[in-house]
Amino acid sequence: MKKTILISFLLAGSLVSMAQQPYQGVVGRTLAESKEWWPEPVKAPKGAPNIVWILLDDVGFGASSTFGGLISTPTFDSLANNGLRYTNFHTAAICAPTRAALLTGRNHHSVHMGGFAHYFSSAGFPGYDGRIPSSKGTVAEILKESGYNTFAVGKYGITPDEDTSDAGPFDRWPSGKGFEHFFGFLGSETDQYRPALVEDNVNIKPDGRHLSEQITDKAISYIARQKKAAPDKPFFLYYAPGATHAPHQVAKEWSDKYKGKFDEGWDVYREKVFANQKKLGIIPADAKLPERNAIIKAWNTLTPGQKKLYARFFEVYAGYLTYTDYQVSRVINYLREINQLDNTLIFVVIGDNGASKEGTQEGIVEYSNSPRRNRNITREDAAKFNEAHLDEIGTPQADANYPLGWAQAANTPFRYWKQDANTEGGTRNPLIVFYPKGIKDKGGIRTQYGHVIDLLPTTLEFTGIPFPDSIKGIKQDSLQGTSLVYSFDNAAAPSRHTQQYYYIFGTRAIYKDGWKAGVSHRPNYLDLNDYADPSRPAVVRDFDKEVWELYNLNEDFNERINLADKYPQKLAELKHLFEEDAKKYNIYPFIDWEDVFQRRLRNSQKSTIPVPKQK
C-alpha cells in the first residue's frame, strides 16, 4: 500500500502542477510567429478511489450497535466489520466547531469557528466570527482542484446567518467552499419534514417527505449523473444528515420497532451497553462504569407515568437512528450496484459530539411548552404537558428531544454530554474506516488517538493527493491534523496525534500523551436558553478561579479518578500547554456563549440594521 501511495502522490503532484503552471506557449506578433498551448486537464491520481464522508449529528458513543449500543445500525455494523473501528477518536463537543474543523483539517478557533456562525452566537474576534477564511481551504476545494467531483447533502451548519438569503453572498455557502452541488440546510438544526431547505444557491420549498430520504435521493442522483458522464472520474460525497439532532422525528413504523425495548430504563441500558462494549473489545476488560451523573434520577425512583413517557422518548430516538442507518444503506447499496463500493473510501463519524443534553430533565415534546424556549413554562407544567401529549413524540407536529437521563445512557461508557468539551462524553465519538482494497485487518479495532482535523490529511495521504500551496491563488495555511494512515495496517502503532485542545463556551481541556486536564465552566448549567433576558445585567466571569481536573487516560479512559491533587506538577504543565494553544489558535478571549448572545441582542435593539431571523 505504501508504495502505491508514494507513486500516486508523485503522479498527483505532477498533474496538479501542470494545471497551475504559467502559460508555456509563445505569443508572437502574428499567428505564424506564435506557438499555441493549453494546460493539461487536471486529473485525479490513477486509480484514486471515490471518497464518502458520513457525519451523523448528536449521537453518543454508546448508542449504535456498532459500538455496543442497543440501537440497531446494521449498515454501520457491516462497514465496521469489513473495515476498522476507531475507539479513541474525538470531535469538538458541538456541531459547528466540529464541522469546520473536519472540513478544513484545522482547529476550530483557527478557522474562526470557536462557537457558531449564527448572528446571536458569533463574536467579533478572530476565533469566533464564524467566517472561515479562504486561506483555510476545505477538503472539497482541494479534491475539486485535484480532479474530483464534489457533492454535499444534509447539514452544513457553518454559513453565517447574514449570508443565507437568496441574495447571498455565496462564498461561505457550500458552493463557495468547493462543493459543486449541495442539497440540505445551512443552519444548526431544522425540522425533518419542514426543513429550511437549500439546493445549490437557492432556498427552496420542501416536498413534505423526511429530509433524510430527500438527501439520500439527491446523493444517489449526483453519483448516477456523474458516473454516466465520466465513469472513471472519482467523486467526493459529504453525507451529513440532520439526524439524529432534535427534533427527533421519524415514521411510527421505525419507532414502533422499539416498543417496550427500553422499559427497564436508562440505568439498565448503561449496564447492558457497558457489557457489550467489553465483549466487543471496544473498552478495556477491566474498565468500570462511572456513577450516574448526579443530576440524573435513578430510573426506579420515577413514577409510572414518567417511565412510560421517557421510554417512549427513547423508542422514537432509536427508531430515528435506525432509520438514518437505513438511508445510509441506500447509498452503500447503490455503490455496490454500480460496482463502485470496492473502490470507495468511506469514513463514518457517528456523531459530531456526544449525546445532547438539550432535551432538559423532562424531555421536550413541543418547544412552546418547554422551559428551554418559553420562560413562562415551569418544569412541572412541561412534565404534565409531555405526559398528556406522549403520542405526539416523533411526529411532524412535535419538536421531540429525549430527557437528560437518556443522553448519559447514549454516552456509555462516559460521563456528561454534548457541549462539555472537558469530558470524553462530550468529545469522544466512534469512527469507522472502510475501504475493501486497502483495509487488510477487516473488523480490526484501533485505539490510536484521533480528532476530526485528522480526516483531511488522512484522505490526502491515502489518495496520494498533495496538500496545495494555494487554492485559487490564495496561499494556504498549513494543516493541523495528523494522518491516520500509519495505523491502518498496524494496530500497535503509537499515536502520532499527541496533543489537542478543546474549548466550547468556556469549558476547556488539553490532551497530551494520554494525560488530560480540563475544567467545566458553569458545571451545573444544563442548557442555554434561546431567549436570554436582555435586561439581565452582564456577568463578569472569573475563569482563573475555576477548578481544573486531571486524568490519566492511559489507565483511566473514562475519567473516573481525578488526579489533580496527586500530580499538581503535571496539571501545571498541561495548563501551560493550554495557554500556549490559546494564543496560537485564537482561543482568546475566553467567551461564555450566553454573554455574547445578550450583548448581540442588546446591540440589535439599538441598531437600525436588520437582524437575521433565527431558524
From TrEMBL:
Protein name: Sulfatase-like hydrolase/transferase
Organism of this sequence: Chitinophaga tropicalis
Family matches, as Pfam families: Sulfatase (PF00884)
Stretch forming the signal peptide: 1-19
Alphabetized UniProt keyword annotations: Calcium, Hydrolase, Metal-binding, Signal, Transferase
Protein family per UniProt: Belongs to the sulfatase family.
Phylogenetic classification of the source organism: Bacteria, Pseudomonadati, Bacteroidota, Chitinophagia, Chitinophagales
Keyword Hydrolase: yes
InterPro entries on file: Alkaline_phosphatase_core_sf (IPR017850), Sulfatase (IPR050738), Sulfatase_CS (IPR024607), Sulfatase_N (IPR000917)
GO molecular function: hydrolase activity; metal ion binding; transferase activity
Sulfatase N-terminal domain mapped to chain residues: 49-465
